[in-house]
Amino acid sequence: MTDVHGAQGNNSQSFTIDDKAPEISISPEQLISSGNITLKITITDDHKLDPNSIRINGEEVNQCSKISDSEVICDYTIPAPAEGR
After folding, report:
1. What does the pLDDT read at residue 84?
2. pLDDT score, position 42
3. Nearest to 50 by CA among 17, 74, 25
4. pTM (2 decimals)?
5. Residues 6 or more apart in contact with residue 60 via CB below 8 angstroms
6. Which long-range contacts (CB under 8 A, 24 or more apart) does 68-74 make?
7. For 22-80, how does the pLDDT look when each residue is reduced to its tens digit (9 = 90+)?
8. Each residue of 26-52: b (16+ CB within 10 Å) or e?
9. What's residue 38's pLDDT?
């Protein structure tokens, strides 16, 4: 395209429709009997993952590591219930 002053410009955009859900694997790090429960969460996707954008119940998970652009591993601890509950 050329404007009235002879300047030329081009522009294009593309996007991908992501119709495949990420794969999420959750496993305990130890036998569960009492106390805190630590889980290892592995997330893989065909598209780039941001380890700083992982949330559980709206709460940011800060212990995530980027293994590759398409894989993130997080450690998540569920605190033990308070005594008497």
Report:
1. 61
2. 95
3. 74
4. 0.67
5. 52, 54
6. 70/44, 70/45, 70/46, 71/42, 71/43, 71/44, 72/42, 72/43, 73/40, 73/41, 73/42, 73/43, 74/40, 74/41, 74/43
7. 999 999 866 766 788 888 999 999 988 999 888 888 888 888 999 999 999 999 888 88
8. eeeeeeeeeeeeeeebebebeeebebe
9. 85
In the numeric block, the tokens 């030329």 are attached to 8
Q: In the structure encoding, which two tokens stand for residue 68, read together?
A: 């590759």
- Give the DSSP H/E element, type plus range, for residue 44: strand 37-44
- Phi, psi (degrees; rounded to nearest 5) at 52: -90, 5
Residue found under tokens 């605190």: 79
